[in-house]
Amino acid sequence: MEIKTLKELDLTTLTRKSYGNDQLLEDKVAEILSEIKKEGDLALYALTEKFDGVDLRGSGLRVQKEELTRAYAQVDEEFLEALRLAKENITSYHEKQKRTSWLDAKEDGSVLGQLLLPLKRVGIYVPGGTAAYPSSVLMNAVPAVVAGVEEIVMVSPPRKDGTLLPEVLVAAAEAGVTEIYKVGGAQAIAALAFGTEGISPVDKITGPGNIYVTLAKKQVFGTVDIDMLAGPSEILILADESAKPEELAADLLSQAEHDPLASSILVSPDRKLLEETVVEVERQLNLLQRQEIARASWEAYGAAILVQDLEEGMDLANQIAPEHFELVVKEPYSWLGRVRNAGAVFLGRFSPEPVGDYFAGPNHVLPTGGTARFYSPLNVDTFTKKVSVISYSEKALRRDGRHITHLARKEGLEAHARAVEARKLW
Asked: Which residues of this UniProt protein bind Zn(2+) (predicted)?
């Protein structure tokens, strides 16, 4: 790979902010949504057979208790220990995000406030396909549990034998998921949004998936809420001469192995570091089981960018707004205040991105494709809603009534004004 300066780069290629803008795919997804609306479970069975090669008509879509029991028997104790420790960390982190309802009593007797209420029923999507992610189960379900959501419905595409990965099922049971269905893709999103005979509709859908899942979430928004429109994974590392090429290469490839469309970017004012890291990436690629995927990602969307100094590197990072942003520099905390746009920031060489993916506690469902400019990571607030509270006193309405009616009549809304005047306070 060639080391490039900012002048030589096409940043739009690296960030791919247009991900998902494909009318042909939009139309295919719309057709799937329409089928689920019309045919319900029959369409779910047919589409699961068509896209996943699995006929679930005999066993049914819903995971039964005995399947969960079998799953526990199939996982090893080391996995279970790691999963439970990760859940503890994720729970502890998200507990700190909880907020409470509030009421503010005024001297005139009025009370204003806000109720924070959990959503009643949410759906979480857990990807299958090239990899399965027990960690995604925890990251979606645990904040919902902390928020107080009563019903958490998980959907995930089945394997060829009609089952879900035992680790995914165990993670769901440990995290507090209340219903599990063996269905994926756009059809799963449609079932969660519109409901079928066997799956009741939800209030919100969270969790990343492939392009069909993303476009389906986009199209059902408004019928239900969604967390975000997630694209391929990204990492941007800003490094100085203190960084080690072997570690940087490993961190870059940790994202490249996700998806051929994943983006791995290294930024540094040190040309020697960039060159040595590029060589190290090539060496480590040959060691990966998912070498083909990682190589395709690195060659298409990887970059080694030479900047004048760390200041310019930080400006570039904020412009790209990466999903994962590693600050591998001598004094990372001195640069933290300069971060404006990132899904998650990892400080120092002992904070590689997988620490956040699996164990530390912060959520790994993060904004991609530059949307960290306005999206936040999945969090407890994702699963709550706010209700305004207004209790005006007679004294307050007598004082403010004329102002209210004046504003209403300026907008041509006479009935609004009369609703205030009907109290006959002046």
From this structure: 255, 258, 357, 416
